[in-house]
Amino acid sequence: MTDQMKAVVLTRFGGADAFELRDVAVPQVGPRQVRVRVHATAVNPLDYQIRRGDYTDHVPLPAITGHDISGVVEEVGSHVTEFRAGDAVYYTPRIFGGPGSYAEQHVADVELVGRKPENLSHLEAASLTLVGGTVWECLVTRAQLIVGETILVQGATGGVGTIAIQVAKAMGARVFATARAGDHEFVRSLGADAAIDYTSTDYVDAVAEMTRGKGVDVVLDAIGGDTLTRSPLTLADGGRVVSIVDIAQPQNLIEAWGRNAAYHFVFTRQNRGKLDALTTLVERGLVKPVIGATLPLARMGEAHEILENRRSYGLRGKVAIDVAGETVAVPPRLS
Known about the structure:
It is built from 11 helices and 15 strands. It has helices at 45-52, 122-126, 129-142, 159-170, 184-190, 203-210, 226-230, 254-258, 272-283, 300-308, 310-313, and strands spanning 4-10, 19-25, 33-43, 69-76, 88-91, 105-109, 114-115, 150-154, 174-178, 194-196, 216-221, 235-243, 262-265, 291-296, 318-322.
């Protein structure tokens, strides 16, 4: 093993040009850790939020960021019995807990690591870890969605939204999704029972019509802003709103009071249990990651630019990073 590896390093907070590809030291393995050869990673809104400086108190520079990994175990710690060299694994590195995934190798606490689904490529698996864990936390742990309930997925074509539709459908829910008209066939192909064009229709009115005035049991908010404040207007009595968007200012949620609503604000917690549950759904053919663009590690800045401007590219799903190769598949910019 060489003692150096390639990594994309965040040298300052700012734009997509804030990264540098550098040679850095290969991390050492602790007793309850594994060292993984990273085959693929992916880009999340959390990543560009960190890059632009939203969490400066939590990220000392220079930093290796990134929150998705699929790869192969190269070394295990002295107290690890769950894995051995050669095992294909996937996981989310601990958020704000050390170096991230934008590198050729990564060391992780073994409790975070799951076995990669056999029917996914590394690029697909890396596109599932953070968003999949987030969706599981939102729908299963927090909202406690059950068979026969209805859910409105806001931001249906994004990384979280595309997985949320599939997981909710696998759980036996009736799924409504907000998306532009050109994406309606796409979200229906993922399992949405109905699609609402938010550019031409008030989704509050649409939900009222489709539920005959009852409202939905759960709203998953991946957008924030007005979407968060108006979500209670779509809820049934005793409904739940789950939001993954951080909020800088207090919101007027008076409509939630009138519906006895519960609000859950989710910052994903990492563990193997969520990944194992997702693997079961994936290997049964019920969930499949959506990749809208793929770039090599050296083009990380471009990957961030595409995700930050996803509407300009008509991006669906995740931006994946081929760490072990040079795959390039980028949608043309629409505007």
